Model the fold of this input.
Amino acid sequence: MARIMSGVQPTGNLHIGNYLGALVNWVRLQAEYDAFFSIVDLHALTQRPDPEALRRAVREVAIGVLASGVDPDRATVFVQSHVPQHTELAWVLMCLTPLGDLNRMTQFKDKSHHQPENVNTGLFTYPVLQTADIVLYRADRVPVGEDQEQHLELARETVRRFNHVYGETFPEPQVVKSNAPRVMGLDGESKMSKSRNNEIGLFETADETMQKLRGAKTDPARLRKTDKGTPEVCNIFSYHGFFTSESQREEIAAGCRSAQLGCVDCKKMLCQNMETVKGPIRERAAELRSKPKDLDAILERGAARARAEAEKTMEMVRARVGLGVRA
Ligand code: AQP
Done:
């Protein structure tokens, strides 16, 4: 069975961008692949989170992954820092990665811009740790959103370099494209992000979501209810693409174009449709939250399997690069 690996950062609450862009795929792919899904807490340290908040976020993100339908009996679900081999391999790969390659990473530039007070080395070497996350499990495929494609290209380059220098060791990981590679934020300007305050939370109630939707950008040319709108340029209409049936979308588009349907009503319909997805996830999350020991056991089981696989890889890597004492 081919293998996939993917991760999610515990940097805040999961949002519908993470759900549509990543988790929906994870659930689909766990049936076809030997899947490794990680809550990548070492990556989250690049944002210097409050320790208690980080611990909480790790649990909440794990709960979100499971509540979305990832089955720990099928997939290996684990926390990155429970497998120390990630950082060991990252160091080996860092020693193979030219500075210039990392300098080109747009996410580093973007994140440095958004946290100018904390442009740390971890933020810069983040893609190398991400490469280690993938190749540690010798993954063939990696499901990611559009924002991660450049990092994946770097991972492939690193694999080629390692295999060239030390002999064929890792498969070159291929991207599995998401059906929702870039879900936009409520601002309609940047991708939905945990740290940008532009998100619809996966665990939010319908009331909380509606409150956020009220202030969300729509067709900028539609200033009054009586103005005719253009659904194709409306961010809210793009969300309908993920949550609303085709026939209702056609009705909404016609109502918007003719000014028969106002933006608030359009948002209410979206909120209702989202709730049919988010409601059951919220219920499963509440159930998981009420049994913390079960969650611990799931994550410990996942970590044990991940460590065993990671150690197999590291034994090979250490031997190839010349680490360890051997006669
Ligand atoms: N807006 C998005 N649209 C589609 N996919 C998305 N992903 C994230 N945002 C969107 C995908 O979700 C997975 C996990 O992402 P992550 O938590 O590891 O990091 P991220 O991409 O940096 O997500 P955020 O929410 O933007 O986090 P912060 O604000 O902390 O940087 C990945 O597969 C990602 O592609």
Q: What stands out?
A: Residues 7-9, 11, 17-18, 21-22, 144-145, 147-148, 180-183, 191-195 surround adenosine-5'-tetraphosphate (CB under 6 Å). The beta strands are 3-8, 34-39, 76-79, 141-144, 174-177.
